[in-house]
Amino acid sequence: MQQISRMLTKLFRRARLEKPGQVDPRAAEFTLSLLVAMYDRSGTGYVRTRSAAAALISLSGDTLLAKYRAFFQFYAVPDGKEALITRSALRSLLTDLNQIPAVVGEGCTLSCVEIAIHDCFHGVLNAAIVEEKFLSWLRSEPAVLLWLPTCYRLSAAEMVSHQARCR
């Protein structure tokens, strides 16, 4: 928890320098509280760094593709020259990501995660998939993660302005 707290403090300090007046001075504290609510419900004082990274990536203002690639980087397993996502790694990613809607009472069941894993690996004979297969599956907007592109679109729509006037 201390490591994540230090990282968040640095992150938001840098953001305040880049965008003065736009970042709440307590942003690191609030973000840590959110991460604790999502990933330390039993009060152990421990949050996995990878889980915290998945949450920060998903809540970032980056593009969906950039988020998907970052998920792959954090959860993939090296296999010779390339990295692969195993069923186990995908289960871990989906479980971590589903803590985000769960914190507001919108999480899905474990069976949703298993159905998504089966869907992602449909027709795959190997024990793991390459990045392109993973990205292709995410672009198909699986139901278990439908909240992610929806939130992205809502965020992107906030920046749209039209020169039309309504009567």
UniProtKB/TrEMBL annotation:
GO terms for cellular component: plasma membrane; synapse. InterPro entries: EF-hand-dom_pair, EF-hand_dom_typ2, KCMF1/Dystrophin. GO terms for biological process: synaptic signaling. Residues 65-154 form the EF-hand domain. It comes from the Eukaryota. Pfam families: EF-hand_3. This is DYTN protein. It comes from Rhabdornis inornatus.
